[in-house]
Design goal:
- By secondary structure, this protein is mainly alpha-helical.
- The protein has 26 helices and nine strands.
- It folds into three domains: 93-258, no CATH class; 302-497, Arp2/3 complex 21 kDa subunit ARPC3 (Orthogonal Bundle); 505-670, no CATH class.
- Helix content is 64%, strand content 6%.
Length: 671
């Protein structure tokens, strides 16, 4: 059952593929060929050699090892050193715990109050007072110390000293320092955060002045000396202060880590540039671990860069393909015809131009890539397309070439603009030529334009005068050679593609053409009729936006099928009508045949397809009214199909105009 389902799926897929228009297969094939060229010859191509793959750590390099491509890579070791240096500037954050401070303050106040109360009351011996004090504040002092301070009979001034020193040291913060904190952060300073009146305040302090349990004794001594505590009281002040004080400032791990993260984020990676021919390891050198890591970083950077360039190129290729699809599908956007030969010609032209650009960007140095357009005959391709298919198709071709150039050169702006402007200028200049000889003048004009364009493209590079003249020479040569080859190739492609270009139509419009002279000699009435039809069709074509020259040429040749038997057509008859001597069916056959004979003769003398279509469609499938009237007079039953022309209805404006002009001219002669 599963095999049957799979077979059904593949059958449906095959049927759907068969329904795809063959022209679409050509289009998709061209896209695939372009993508293969981009992969093999593009800026990220696998064809560009590199010896990076042939290294191993700890071995001697057998050959010079070089990058093979211009690239920028991140020096991870240098970046890490920069990050560590920045981290060492970050201050560790310590926060004062106000709850602990309040508890110590309250304990100092209650102890001094209770002690003074006991001493002043003298309700018992010193041992008893010591026990009372110990029971009220257990674990505050050593057992013998309770009795000692009771025996000392400390006064209120002593406790003022104690409270004052405790308050001072708590305010500065007695810091709990985790092990290794200053190994990661700034070793000389720290930040102290405290809350005052519900507002956080921070202060940067010197690490050497930090108060910890380790140096608390010396700081107490400094505080007592600052207050000139009498020597007799120092031991008691020292004892009580040490007993009261505890760590109230702690390291804030989360806030400190956020500072580190922010510091790392500010660091730009350290980048190094390596040219394609730069030797990384010379032959005979040892590949050390450090050197291997550097080369590995370069290799990774090349891979990432190549992938980005390839994806960008494929994206631009898709855009160009989409524009090409619009060109072939939306007739209002261009003059592009729907025949397969034209599609193949345009696809091949684009592929040849694309591969030409790929080869140029591989051959010339990267620093000269901006002048790469001077080595690509964009004017030749765009000029040919515009002359064969019209200026709108030529402009469209230039826009597609612009995106193809971007894909082939990794968006080199000057290369892309150079191709675009050269193509557009060729499209416009070649359209100024009215005869083939005028194409030479257009080629000279194109040479001048491209010489000027080459200078414009160099303006942002501050070129030397020699470089300017060199670029102008290359631009002029490119434009002139492109225009000259257009003169050479145009007649060839006119014949191969069977296109009615302006120049070909102008040649056919010459009334001294052999077939027209033969018509004048053998069928003078038909010749005069054709001239009149040509005038009417050409005039009408100018009014309705059709091609006047094509309409005129089509009218000249629409009746060349009458040359063989001119006597059977009224415009050539002089009093004797041959159709009076034969039956209507034979008359219809003879008259109908002039369309077929005209098509055969047109093909024999090499007339373009548009003109042949006019010959075949100038009667359409209309009925021969004069012959059918004669048939009705001779018989009661008449088959209309026997008296119809067997051609197609007009499919172009020009063919319809020739048909109408032919009918009007014939009718005017019968009046």
């Amino acid at each position: 059952m599963k095999k049957n389902n799979e077979a059904t799926f593949f059958q449906r897929l095959a049927e759907q593929l068969r329904t795809i228009n063959p022209s679409m297969w050509f289009f998709l094939g061209a896209v695939v060929v372009a993508a293969i060229g981009l992969f093999l010859l593009g800026p990220s191509s696998i064809m560009r050699g590199s010896s990076i793959e042939s290294i191993e750590v700890g071995k001697i390099a057998e050959t010079d090892i070089y990058a093979g491509k211009d690239t920028v890579y991140i020096d991870k070791e240098a970046t890490q050193r920069k990050i560590l240096a920045e981290e060492r500037l970050v201050l560790p954050v310590f926060v004062v715990d106000e709850n602990i401070t309040s508890l110590v303050r309250e304990k100092a106040e209650s102890f001094s109050t209770y002690y003074l109360q006991l001493v002043n009351e003298e309700s018992g011996g010193q041992e008893a007072l010591g026990l009372l004090l110990r029971s009220r504040f257990p674990d505050f002092l050593q057992p013998e110390q309770y009795t000692a301070i009771v025996r000392a009979k400390l006064n209120s001034q002593t406790f003022i000293y104690v409270n004052d020193i405790v308050e001072s040291l708590l305010g500065k913060g007695i810091v709990s320092v985790p092990e290794g904190v200053f190994d990661r952060f700034n070793p000389n300073y720290y930040e102290l955060v405290r809350t005052i009146n519900n507002q956080e305040e921070s202060e940067q302090l010197v690490e050497s002045e930090m108060i910890t349990l380790a140096n608390l004794g010396s700081r107490i001594e400094e505080e007592m000396d600052a207050r000139r505590v009498p020597e007799s009281q120092k031991q008691y002040v020292r004892l009580l202060v040490k007993a009261l004080l505890r760590e109230n400032t702690f390291f804030d791990q989360d806030l400190s880590e956020k500072r580190l993260i922010a510091a790392r984020a500010r660091i730009e990676p350290v980048t190094r540039f390596v040219s394609r021919n730069e030797i990384l390891v010379r032959k005979g050198e040892l590949v050390t671990p450090e050197l291997y890591q550097q080369i590995k970083a370069i290799k990774s950077a090349i891979f990432v860069s190549d992938m980005g360039i390839l994806l960008t190129g494929l994206g631009l290729l898709i855009i160009a393909s989409f524009l090409g699809f619009l060109l072939s599908r939306i007739q209002d956007l261009s003059d592009f015809p729907s025949d397969r030969s034209s599609l193949i010609f345009l696809l091949l032209s684009m592929l040849i131009l694309f591969y030409w650009i790929l080869v140029v960007q591989n051959v010339i140095d990267a620093k000269d890539l901006s002048r790469g357009a001077l080595f690509v005959p964009a004017s030749l391709f765009a000029g040919l397309v515009s002359l064969l298919y019209g200026p709108r198709t030529g402009i469209f071709f230039c826009i597609i070439s612009f995106f193809l150039t971007g894909a082939a050169t990794n968006l080199n702006a000057q290369f892309m603009i150079g191709i675009l402007l050269a193509g557009i200028s060729a499209t416009l200049t070649m359209r100024t030529a009215r005869t083939r000889s005028m194409l030479a003048r257009a080629a000279l004009l194109q040479a001048i334009i491209q010489a000027c364009l080459s200078v414009v493209l160099l303006l942002n590079q501050k070129p030397t005068p020699a470089e300017v003249f060199q670029s102008m020479g290359l631009g002029a040569l490119n434009g002139f050679v492109g225009g000259s080859f257009i003169m050479l190739f145009l007649p060839l492609f006119e014949r191969i593609l069977d296109k009615s270009t302006l120049f070909r139509l102008m040649e056919l419009a010459d009334i001294n053409a052999p077939v027209l002279k033969e018509m004048l000699s053998n069928a003078p009435g038909t010749y005069a009729h054709s001239m009149n039809v040509a005038y009417l069709a050409e005039t009408a074509a100018k009014e309705v936006g059709a091609n006047p020259l094509l309409a005129r040429v089509g009218a000249y040749y629409h009746d060349i099928g009458k040359i063989e038997h001119p006597e059977y057509f009224t415009e050539n008859q002089k009093g004797i009508n041959r159709h009076d001597e034969i039956n209507p069916t034979l008359s219809a056959s003879i008259i109908r045949r002039h369309v077929k004979d005209g098509i055969e003769r047109a093909r024999k003398i090499g007339l373009p397809k548009e003109v042949i279509d006019i010959i075949g469609q100038h009667h359409g499938n209309s009925v021969m009214e004069a012959i059918i009237s004669k048939a009705k007079d001779s018989t009661s039953e008449t088959d209309l199909q026997s008296y119809r022309y067997q051609g197609e209805r007009p499919k172009s404006k020009e063919a319809a105009l020739v048909m109408l002009a032919d009918t009007i001219e014939a009718a005017s002669r019968s009046l």
